[in-house]
Amino acid sequence: MPPGPGYLTAVAARSPGSALAVGTTFPHKRPLLAQWNGAAWRMLRDPALPVTGSLTGVAIFPGGAWAAGERGMSGSGRGSFPLMLRVTGTTVREVPIPRTTYGGDLNGVAATSATNAWAVGNEATIGGGTGAALMLHWNGRAWTRVRLAAGLAREGGVVTAVAATSATNAWAVTNSPARGGLPPIMHWNGRQWGKIPSPDIGMPYGLTAVAATSARNIFVVGYDRALASRSVLLHWNGRTWTCGRTVQVVRSKVPGVSLTSVSASSADNAWAVGSYFGSASRVLALRWNGRAWRQVRIPQPSQFNLLHGVAVVPHSGAAWTVGGAVSRTLMLHWNATAWQ
Prior knowledge:
The chain is mainly beta. It is about 5% helix and about 55% strand. It has 2 helices and 27 strands. The N and C termini lie close together (about 10 Å).
């Protein structure tokens, strides 16, 4: 576990010997980068990291990684601006991205190669609120902004996450309802971003994360916007959505349940993590085996724990999950048998 106070918000893994986690220190809000070399985690401390800010998304590709977030602090009175970092080995450098007039932030990043990556977030408005969706694309030379169609752009909402498997298959989700009461789910087909109809599952919901292994295997997770008593698990098979729910947690009648991250390596192997809230906050891990989601026992280091990110390690039965516990970073490893 990386030492010191703070919390980790996202993790990505390329192999059993290569992983990267990002977050922010506490209470000074400085971006946090932790790198796994196959034997231990170590902090990356580089002059390219801004004095104030946070990182909320990370993606590894052959030859490097992207880390996305914000420079400055939202709600500080001075605003924040989107931040993109390139990690090569142990070197970190900031990469220019299109400017936003009033600031904003990036919430997620996905990469399929050194020449194809997506980053999503939102611009800020004059008063510091959430504005238009921010969709950025990397072509190997520069980050450029990709505009949404007028109808989709008007639906607004906070773009929370992005996943991609190729140059013609990327997905982005939001946590805010559109006019019909359902959060927009967006798909990139190689030419433009379009809308995939969100399923009506009998309750208002928000979406926090998306994972994809192909155009016919997409996992999306979120939470119940009305009562916050149920988590949401959606799966796209290329034609329709199906919905699963965390049965064990619902039956325990805890006041609040929220899933914050999902990662998959195939149609029959995925992990979703989050937290449930009562007199304390507890972490939650669910595993998909191709037929159903099952809750898996996971350590509870303290009374107040949160999980924000999960990553399946390719070509292995392992996985990483990250978060925070009483202002300290939290990092757990699945060794194909148990979380530890």
